[in-house]
Amino acid sequence: MARYLIRRILLAVVTMFAVSVLTFLLFFAVPTSPAYVMCGKQCDAHAIAQTEQRLGLDKPIVTQYGEFMKGIAVGRTYGTGDLAVKCDAPCLGFSFRTNEPVTDIIKRTLPVTVSVVVGALVIQLVIGVGLGMISALRRGTAFDKAAVGVSLVGASMQIYFFGPILLLIFVYSLHWLPNPAYTSPFDDPFKWFTQMILPWVTLGFLNSAIYARLSRAQMLETLSEDFVRTARAKGLPKRKVYARHALRAAITPIVTIAGLDLGGALGGAVITETVFGVNGLGRTSVNAVNDLNLPVVMGTVLLAAFFIICMNIIVDVLYSVIDPRVRLS
Amino acid sequence: MTATASSAATSGVADDRPYLEVDDLRVQFKTEDGIVRAVDGISFALPRGRTLGIVGESGSGKSVTSLTVMGLHNAARTRITGSIKLDGREIVGLDDEQVRRMRGRDVAMIFQDPLSALHPYYTIGKQISEAYLVHHPGRKAEARKRAIEMLDRVGIPQPKKRADQYPHEFSGGMRQRAMIAMALVNDPSLLIADEPTTALDVTVQAQILDLLEDLQREFNSAIIMITHDLGVVSQVADEVMVMYGGHAIEFGSVEQVLRSPQHPYAWGLLQSVPSLRGNAEEDLDPIPGSPPSLINLPSGCAFHPRCAYKMVGGGPCDLEVPELLPTADAGHVVACHLPENERRRVYEEEIKLGAAQ
């Protein structure tokens, strides 16, 4: 187990390194210099050169990359003399646009994304898995057919269609809910909840469609397994056959998929954040790409990669806990 | 489809009152393609301490018969008629809850592949004690003790340690022993073994069959042994029922059915068994064709399209369903249109020598 974890962590470090190199290279493959984007209409060669020098973009890519990585490891100092700005490790640099430290930007936007994503995950697991399991147990009934129908609609719907409709109804027409925004749950849990409920429902409902279909299929497959028949042959009541024997086996792959989904979503729920106008990691990341804001791009991309890799490891470890046949080696 | 029910079938079994009585059992499933007549008029009786072997190809209805006795069929899509009596109590038409209480306590079942029949996520000990706890609620410590006792009884070394292991940590033979321990934990009066040795290698097979016989003597339970392996039947069964296309086509003592079978299908089964002593160069003699569709059985005798001795063209084989009729041997019943002396002659002259005896 320990050896397995060490190997996986080493592999994760290598993956992160590869991601950072690729992001860097891709960034410099864009023909426009960030300096053009920044200096606006009144721009001459001199101003651009000055900006590039200020941002360190005049140095060779390898040097820039080296300095960036050094910043993460031990921190770095920007500028010289009186203008020197110290940036402590882990230093991801400063935004080209606002000069805000990238770590501060992440600290500000990450809780927003975590709020949206985790809340939606809870909804999609409860509704999706619940609906799927029940319709598997009631296969062929009206409930099953309705659930399959609803999940088909959900799976084909888009956030940018469903989200605005909910906004129109609950915020602008009925005035039941405030406009979605982010308030820290530690400051005002009620406000946090009422502002977040629409993004949760939108993202959660649409994703629950996929989970419903998946868990229905899983459950149907498990119900036809021999060990479920054995459980019935023992004389166990239906409820226990389903809960203790069938559900336990059917839920395993869903845990895996939910974990990987969570890892991916923590990197930013771009569309949801954009539709509801909350500034999470996803929106920040997309804006940074548009602005050619390298430090922010690097920071958010690396963070997203970090989440995905972490969740992969967590899911694997969890799997070995759920399924005694799985050995980590 | 006419009835092939026979009261003669019951006359082959021993003296005391039968524990299990099945009378004219019919099981039908509704499917999209039509009605599957999986079991079509089966009758037999089985007293405690005796073993009935049910033999037939896949799809002959042997497993469905046993699942129906257990009440494990899908109630919504299955139609059952006839009668199944356990210890004199009718269980066809009983409500789910009553059948459930009986399941595992009065009737237990051993399945073919113990790896897939045991839950991969629970320890062996837990699965056995669960079977005990269903029928003895709240007695947890006792259940655990009993599970270890049973593991010991079925010949699993270090039962205490093994009880905490998972099915995948057991070998095939040990898994089947654990399965048997689980089935016997409540001292059931009837044990149904559905091909219990098919997934095991030969040496282990013999051990498992010996174990079953030992346990039968000890617990005096009735056993239904479902198999397509005539070797298994000859080792453990007292009576044998041969099934084909949902019908019983031959029934008798193990001597009668294996030493002087009278149905051409039973001959075919015997001839498909490879012989250890025969000529290695000689080809096996399989039954031509494949088992019939249970949705659309051949007319007349369901076996006639594959039968080498059929009488067709005015003959009765393709027109009339043969009934199970007594033969000269008391207790031996056969459903075949061929005259009995003709069947005896063909068996003696053509089949006996070639069969693996």
TrEMBL record, chain A:
Residue ranges crossing the lipid bilayer per the database entry: 9-30, 112-134, 146-172, 192-212, 246-272, 292-319
A biological process term (GO) from this entry: transmembrane transport
UniProtKB keywords: Cell membrane, Membrane, Transmembrane, Transmembrane helix, Transport
SUPFAM superfamilies in the cross-refs: MetI-like
Major site of localization recorded for this protein: membrane
Pfam families the UniProt entry points to: BPD_transp_1, BPD_transp_1_N
UniProt membrane topology term: Multi-pass membrane protein
Xref: Gene3D superfamilies: MetI-like
Domain ABC transmembrane type-1: 110-319
InterPro entries: BPD_transp_1_N, MetI-like, MetI-like_sf
Subcellular location: Cell membrane
Any one cellular-component term (Gene Ontology): plasma membrane
Family listed: Belongs to the binding-protein-dependent transport system permease family.
Name listed for the protein in its UniProt record: ABC transporter permease
Organism listed in the record: Actinocatenispora rupis
Organism ancestry: Bacteria, Bacillati, Actinomycetota, Actinomycetes, Micromonosporales
UniProtKB/TrEMBL annotation, chain B:
Keyword ATP-binding included in the entry's annotation: yes
Molecular function GO terms recorded: ATP binding; ATP hydrolysis activity
PANTHER family membership: DIPEPTIDE TRANSPORT ATP-BINDING PROTEIN DPPD, OLIGOPEPTIDE TRANSPORT ATP-BINDING PROTEIN APPD
Protein name: Dipeptide/oligopeptide/nickel ABC transporter ATP-binding protein
SUPFAM superfamilies the UniProt entry points to: P-loop containing nucleoside triphosphate hydrolases
One Pfam match: oligo_HPY
Organism from which the protein derives: Actinocatenispora rupis
Domain ABC transporter: 20-270
